[in-house]
Amino acid sequence: MDFNDIHGILESNLETHLNQLFPGDSQFLETLKYGVLPAGKLFRPKICAAAFADLNGLDALFKELKDPSSPLSLCASSLEIHHAYTLIHDDLPCMDDDDMRRGRPSTHKKYGQWQAVLAGDALLHFSHTLLTKIHHKEVYKLTSFFNWALGAKGLILGQVFDLNGSINKSFENLLRTHTLKTGRLIQTSLYLGQWCAKPNLGFKELKANLRFGEALGLSFQLLDDLSEGAEPINEHEKSVNPFINFPEESLKTLCKSLETITKEVSAENNHYLQLSLKQYFSKMKGIIQKDLESDNSLIFKHFNVLEDNQKEQYQFIVNLLN
């Protein structure tokens, strides 16, 4: 089997795990599933799976994923379910106020605001519950990392900085916000995959995981922000978009982060991690390249960065996405 074949297995496991959550109200279960399925890119579960495969191999990966009760399957679903909760809450009018998600009405537009709030709450709780089903003497390391990275000192704090205006006060604040809000969940994805392969992960390995995960998280968020130049964005998105507020710093940081990622994934022992990133980077390359080649580039129109040296930096980013 090929690494790319894991998408269907991951999505099937997600549905299996969500069915275990059945709350006794079919309408509410429908709301929960709507916020998670059909799955999108499954970027975070795939990062988790790749980190496992690079340590234990492809055969061990498929053996684990074909068992929905295996530690890796539970971790992969936990990551996507936690991600889904953040999206449901982010779309609410009191937060980012988005009416559409993945080409269809966001959860609160489909089912109502209180239903979306409670669905997000339930998914948040369930993402932690799935990890409690893992029986291993070292599981406390996994749950402790999960709680630290995604709680009030991590992802949620990043959401606070995003919404309270701190993100716009300096470029350093913006990087801190993205590191917490986006980077922590990606760092967690790497850690969970490595833990499932090697529960006694050493300090040096953990430190390397955190460093690479931070670079990947920043790149993921900055590329997402950059691609927004090619489409209409709401007022909140404009107010926090780094390529509007800090165009030069954002370009330099994205280039640096992509160089770090390129160096890391080209290492011989990161073959499956490279495969897991290839599809996403190829997609983003297509979006950015299209605007670079346009005579009326929406990216340049939105960001007002027509200088030759900045165009060269954009092209450099495109080249790094190969």
Give the tags.
Farnesyl Diphosphate Synthase; two-stranded antiparallel sheet; 322 residues; 1% strand; mainly alpha; 2 strands
Structure in words:
The protein is an all-alpha fold and 322 residues long. It has a single domain (3-320), classed as Orthogonal Bundle (Farnesyl Diphosphate Synthase). 73% of the residues lie in helices and 1% in strands. It has 17 helices and two strands. It has helices at 6-19, 26-36, 43-56, 58-65, 71-90, 107-111, 113-132, 139-150, 155-163, 171-197, 203-227, 235-240, 242-245, 247-265, 271-292, 298-303, 308-320; strands spanning 100-101, 104-105. A two-stranded antiparallel sheet has the order 1-2. Strand 1 and strand 2 form a beta hairpin. Helix 10 packs across helix 11 (203-227) and helix 11 packs across helix 14. The longest helix is centred in the middle third of the chain and has 27 residues, at 171-197. It is globular, with a radius of gyration of 19 Å. It starts with 5 loop residues before the first helix and ends with a helix.
Secondary-structure topology with pairs:
Elements: H1 6-19, H2 26-36, H3 43-56, H4 58-65, H5 71-90, E1 100-101, E2 104-105, H6 107-111, H7 113-132, H8 139-150, H9 155-163, H10 171-197, H11 203-227, H12 235-240, H13 242-245, H14 247-265, H15 271-292, H16 298-303, H17 308-320
Antiparallel strand pairs: 1-2
Helix pairs in contact: 1-2, 1-5, 2-7, 3-4, 3-5, 3-10, 3-15, 5-7, 5-10, 8-10, 9-10, 10-11, 11-14, 14-17, 15-17
